[in-house]
Amino acid sequence: MADVIQNVIVVGVGGTIGPTFLAKLRNAGFNVSILAREASKATYPTDITVHRTDLSHPSLVKAFHGIDAVVSAVATFNVPDQFAMIDAAVEAKVKRFLPSEYGGDASLPDLENIAPFAVQKQKVVEYLETKESQGLSWTAISVGAFFDYLFGYGYGLMGFHFDEPKVQLFDKGVRPLDATTMNQVGLAVAATLQHLEETKNKRIYVNSFSVSQSQIVDAFEKLSGKTFERTEGSTKELIAAGKAHIEEGNWDLGYPESVTAALYSDTGFGYSSGRASEWNKILGLSEESLDVCAKELLQSKGWI
User: Fold this and answer.
1) Which Gene3D superfamilies match (predicted)?
2) Are residues 11 and 101 in the same domain?
């Protein structure tokens, strides 16, 4: 009999994408619980079970007892915590582990020179591969760029400054990028657990739409009536600057620089060359509209 996922535990519900995962999994009919640190002060819905952990092996195994799938949404800087979770998941006989990916393609070679912030994500998937023989399967989900988060953040992230407004177009802003709303990412997570065989031990790619930076600026201007001052930039130069800042320990500068440059680069980190459309069909995900998503983003900023 094929595996069926019923009991799902979500890690990192207090973060950016975690609440969306929680909602979409519950809407899809899964029995969902939460894993939270003992010291966490985050609040959660009163009708859901919260398992507290100090990340020790015994506490994690206890939390994962009876769980069919672990969905991790831990923040980038906490990605190494997943090694302990994977070991506990194996002992607790969890069927599927979804590591905290939900960004660019962390399977690329030479990742330390493209997206150094994602190297630990790559190592987590490599570790999961060693656990396949012990009964733990996995799925890594690459989504390109979070459209409604990264492009609405401003302060230079993804090249945008909304307070001016101005935009730095990297490599003329014409290269395609996979962009995905957080709603679509949540739907993809739920769909993955409903398509176990198709997604078993694979990296999959989903998006809301493929778009260039210039197309995004054009949509913002059309919908808002505002004009962005446009300047030019180079992804290769920004990758080098971000890597240097990270090596210096300056993550405040290096992290956003590296994220922006890697996603816009020609390395394939932010664009799956059509694979996202193929996986969207397998998972039953509908393509979203740039204009609709851009309008919602601008409304959230009070621009329209």
Assistant:
1) NAD(P)-binding Rossmann-like Domain, UDP-galactose 4-epimerase, domain 1
2) yes
